[in-house]
Amino acid sequence: MKKVSLLLAGIGGYGATYVSALLAAADGGEFTIAGVADPYYDASPHLEDLLRLGARPYRSVEEFYRENSAELAIVSTPIQFHGDHVEQAVGHGSHVLCEKPLGATLAEGRRILDAQSRSGRFVAIGYQWSYSQAIRTLKADILDGRFGRPRRLRALVLWPRNLSYFRRPWAGRQYVDGRAVFDSVANNAAAHYLHNMLFVLGGRPDESAEPLSVTAELYRANAIENFDTAAMRITTGSGAEILFIAAHPVERTRNPVFHFAFEKGDAYCDENAQITAVFRNGERREYGNAGADPDNKLWEAIAAVRSGAPLSCTARTALPHTLCIEAARQSVPEIPAFPGELVRTDENRQLVYARGLFDGLQGCYDNWRLPSEMGFAWARRGGEVDARALLMGSRKLKARI
Fold it and tell me: Which of 30, 80, 255, 302 would disulfide-bridge 179, Cβ 3.0–4.6 Å?
């Protein structure tokens, strides 16, 4: 069977995860690594292993395509480069697996979709829960009508991140060197769990539900440009309401949990990523661990190049998440800081946190409420944004261009 040639664009940070998975499977005969493109490739502890496999090192994606080619480009570069690197890859005939999110802005997301359409190549986005067998089985049951109509969905993620996390050059930034980044808890670390709620409501296996309206509350405790705490209420075309709550400046960890309430039953995910459904007729079903197979996105993309196998999460699947982030930015144009008397620094852990935030957001999740609806003195509700109008506006802008 023909091997699929790969470009690894970005081999540090999350890109190292792809490198490790590929090196572990290098004897399987499914792929070759044509090259790596990373301005700091010398710093990779895997560089010698990659070179032994025949990979050629380059400082940039442009440099790679000047003298080389690949059937599949795996883009793990920072958010602000997703649009450029995807466009370059498909423009040179490569299919793409790009790490989440789709892009920093809705305009960039649409740019990626347009580049994909022009090229005839696919662009897959690496929201690994969308490739999870547990999530796909759950979604199949939803599509089959086993759960009935969706009512409301909620997800909670409380992940402390220390000062070194925010010292990365683009962490928590809105722009870097004039490029949009909009890095945040909702567009990076916890993006999976917002996207997943849209994904399971999609009308097809590779489709996500589009938001109709978004009301956000965004806050920051760390000294960053963007927000490190988010609460959003999203309405969808199915009539279902989504509540998403995520924060970094908390002193304790609450791994992702969700509760999806449907007409005929409820699906729950615990902190160990185990998904269970309880139906109104007393039936119970275990779906397994949503995080059990994080490399499925990689093998699925390689299979799609080789045989045209279907993809679970494409650029179009990921666009509704980007639309939610754009709407949240319009809902809260200026990010408020938590009151100074609430902000603490744990010197031992080098962690900035807001006192009482962990319990407060847990209460929001338990009660299906935004912080302002809980009556917290620091809470400020954002405006309700018509997401459909945003999306139509981006389409009209593209048509004029």
Answer: 80
